[in-house]
Amino acid sequence: MSEQATSTPHAISVRGVSKTYKGGFQALKSVDLDIRRGEIFALLGPNGAGKTTLISIICGIVKPSHGTVTADGHDVLRDYRATRMRIGLVPQELSTDAFETVWAAVRFSRGLFGRSRNDKHIEKVLRDLSLWDKKDAKIMTLSGGMKRRVLIAKALAHEPSILFLDEPTAGVDVELRHDMWNMVRALRDTGVTVILTTHYIDEAEEMADRVGVITRGELILVEEKDVLMRKLGKKQLAISLQAPMQTLPEGLGEYALELADDGATLLYTFDVKSEDTGIAVLLRKLGDRGVDFKDLHTLESSLEDIFVNLVRGTP
After folding, report:
1. pLDDT at 299 over 80
2. Which of 46, 188, 237, 314 could be joined to 268 by an S-S link, Cβ 3.0–4.6 Å?
3. First vs last C-alpha separation in the chain
4. Cβ 4 vs Cβ 172: under 8 Å
5. Which residues, 6 or more positions from 81, have their beta carbon under 8 angstroms from its beta carbon?
């Protein structure tokens, strides 16, 4: 790896990248993004938001209309060979060499990138992905989940330092998804930078170090996942009532209260950042009004709640 590549703290740097297709459709609008070395970065967005277009540009598959991208310090257009050696891509589509065996397809993929033969590495990749017992099977005979594992194995065959996973667990059963999560974490622990797009919000919440949200071609937010949860997450106090009520108690207009579960639960939304949540005073006021309750517990908004609100443009 060159001095230039090791001097930058970022595995990927995107500057002012736009993409307008023939016919005038603007898929990306001046995107700026830095992805750190050795992190798991989740790119979230609805269908048609521009996720796959951005990944394709970074990988050198699609040419941007404007802007520049560097991978490991190398310009993805001017130094295409060097950047492709460093990048592994697992595409969304299950396009595989149907008549090849798993072993042959993965070993051939390594050779495509000019890497010398290394059967020990191929064996390790297949074992890590629970594919070793299928190494002699033709890909056409595998299940959808197994075929997706083969795509990941092919992307890892040439030992990339940056791995893109475009909807890696789409159509994959829950058990296999958890296996893949563990594999991705293990790759991150060895220094591989992982960028994933996903429709499964729990996947990003479980795995990502940072989250980016893209909608209508614009990157509207990039944030540490934990910081994002603290900034935009809301907490609710769920008060289970002894007896259902039809309307909210009078004189509590300053509290963000709502009834749920057909009046059996009173929900109080409060700011997680506030030193004084107001809970103690609220409970006293409820007692003063003869409202009896049998249980209290807090509910915290998930990354999915935050994502939906961001895309809708609501706070």
Report:
1. no
2. 237
3. 44
4. no
5. none
